[in-house]
Amino acid sequence: MVVEWSSEAPARIAELVRAPGVTGLRIRPGAEAAEADDEYWSDEPDFDEDGKPLLPPHEAGGLAGLDLGGIGELDLAHFRFGDPGATSLAAASSDGRIETLDLRYCGIGDDGVAALARSATFRGVRRLHLQSNALTAEGVRALAGFERLRELDLRYNRIGADGARALLAAPFVGSLTRLLLYRRDVSDAGVAVLASAPQLPSALRSFWRSV
């Protein structure tokens, strides 16, 4: 099911996720937010002093009041709410059945990921998509809170070699069946770390040996 974000969206979502047969939910930014995004990204984005993109302001505080019911998949890709929205989302309630969480292109940094990793709502997540956010090695360390991860997409997050080492210290690393990263995300030094890591399953370690 797809819901466009607005002040009425939380009530609509609470109704939908309790309906028979609904197993997944996609929340899209509202029309005004999407228009602001189009205008913002038509030019080169501005960056803060830490090199993170300054995002157009989206009101996403209402995410904290969401009742996500018993759905297994939650997709918020391209809803650029940044760390404030991720922190709000971490306070949402559910029956604890969410296994797939798609947060691609949401503008989330280390603080937002840390909040989500501490949330009981997302404790059971097994597939986490974080492509094109603003994570560093610190954010990768925070991912340790997702103890049941099996698939992880960290592409286009410049986590460096320190991020690769942080990943290898995570409790889930030995259970990963899929890890999406690029050489430029971890640097040549990070590739060497992953290629020689006994913590990684052999199939993933062999991949990094061939990069």
Automatic annotation (TrEMBL):
<keyword id="KW-0343">GTPase activation</keyword>
<dbReference type="Pfam" id="PF13516">
    <property type="entry name" value="LRR_6"/>
</dbReference>
<dbReference type="InterPro" id="IPR001611">
    <property type="entry name" value="Leu-rich_rpt"/>
</dbReference>
<keyword id="KW-0433">Leucine-rich repeat</keyword>
<dbReference type="GO" id="GO:0005829">
    <property type="term" value="C:cytosol"/>
</dbReference>
<dbReference type="InterPro" id="IPR027038">
    <property type="entry name" value="RanGap"/>
</dbReference>
<protein>
    <submittedName>
        <fullName>Uncharacterized protein</fullName>
    </submittedName>
</protein>
<dbReference type="InterPro" id="IPR032675">
    <property type="entry name" value="LRR_dom_sf"/>
</dbReference>
<dbReference type="GO" id="GO:0006913">
    <property type="term" value="P:nucleocytoplasmic transport"/>
</dbReference>
<dbReference type="GO" id="GO:0031267">
    <property type="term" value="F:small GTPase binding"/>
</dbReference>
<dbReference type="GO" id="GO:0005096">
    <property type="term" value="F:GTPase activator activity"/>
</dbReference>
<dbReference type="GO" id="GO:0048471">
    <property type="term" value="C:perinuclear region of cytoplasm"/>
</dbReference>
<keyword id="KW-0677">Repeat</keyword>
